[in-house]
Design goal:
The chain is an all-alpha fold. It folds into two domains: about 130 residues, no CATH class; about 130 residues, no CATH class. The protein is about 70% helix and about 0% strand. Helix 1 packs across helix 3 and helix 5 packs across helix 7. The longest helix has about 40 residues. The radius of gyration is 20 Å and the shape is globular. About 30% of the residues are buried.
């Protein structure tokens, strides 16, 4: 049993390394599946020992072997974050379904969804835009989750689930529409629809509330501790929505469960 969690963690590091490739090459015209990795500063091709997740960054002391310029902390952070999320998914699925085929299927599906969200998370921070390809894949995955529950959960109503997703996204659509995109991007609207379909009404609303709380706290810190941001600065909101989705979907925490703990 010790081997399996270790395998999941190492697998998460490897997938995290691939997600970095997706983040850096998406919409650049470069192939994601092929093409040798190179230093982002000097374009020197990287050897195999420079591509080991996390350990290469530590071994090279965060600098390129060829040009000695700093390597972005994004690389080890995304790798570690992916591994940690995969570990939480593993423990949650095993605790619910045990070691079974269903657990394997749900674990793989959850890992795919988490990977999509992690790429959106970092890509939006880097470029302040959500790629249509990724958000549409997330929406499709959320519809698959509804289809799965339709056949496996007694009394589950897919029609209500579809409406619930729309209700979660409605406030974002109204913000986008009446502000003409100044307060909220349409990518956030599409992301919220997928969240509502994946998490349901209670989970979706909880994830949105968590997103606003986290966003408010982070925004205050950025205003107080840095000169780069002001009240008029645009801060991407998708990372906060995704953080809220992980809190609800991976850790199973909702706003209502928090209220029950406080009572």
């Amino acid at each position: 049993m010790v081997f399996l969690p270790l395998f999941v963690f190492i697998f998460g590091l490897i997938i995290g390394s691939f997600l970095n490739v997706v983040i850096l090459r998406l919409n650049t015209g470069r192939s994601i599946a092929t093409g040798r990795s190179a230093c982002a500063r000097c374009s020197a091709p990287l050897s195999w020992y420079e591509l080991i997740p996390v350990f290469s960054f530590l071994g090279l002391r965060g600098k390129c072997k060829t040009c000695s310029k700093p390597i972005s902390f994004q690389y080890p952070l995304v790798e570690l974050l992916t591994a940690i999320v995969f570990m939480f998914i593993y423990t949650s699925v095993i605790a619910t379904y045990g070691l079974s085929i269903i657990a394997l299927a749900i674990g793989i599906f959850s890992a795919i969804v988490a990977s999509l969200l992690l790429v959106i998370f970092v890509y939006d921070i880097r470029h302040t835009i959500i790629p249509d390809l990724l958000v549409y894949l997330f929406i499709i995955a959320s519809l698959i989750a509804i289809l799965w529950q339709t056949f496996t959960v007694s009394g589950f109503n897919p029609g209500i689930a579809i409406v619930n997703g729309v209700l979660v996204a409605l406030p974002f659509f109204l913000l986008w529409y009446f502000s003409k995109g100044k307060f909220m991007g349409f990518g956030d609207v599409k992301l919220a629809i997928g969240m509502g379909w994946l998490l349901g009404l209670t989970g979706g609303v909880s994830a949105v509330l968590f997103a606003f709380w986290i966003g408010g706290i982070v925004g205050l810190f950025l205003l107080a501790l840095t000169r780069r941001y002001s009240m008029r600065s645009q801060i991407p909101f998708a990372p906060f929505l995704i953080a809220g989705t992980f809190i609800v979907g991976v850790w199973g925490v909702t706003v209502f469960s928090l209220f029950q703990l406080w009572q």
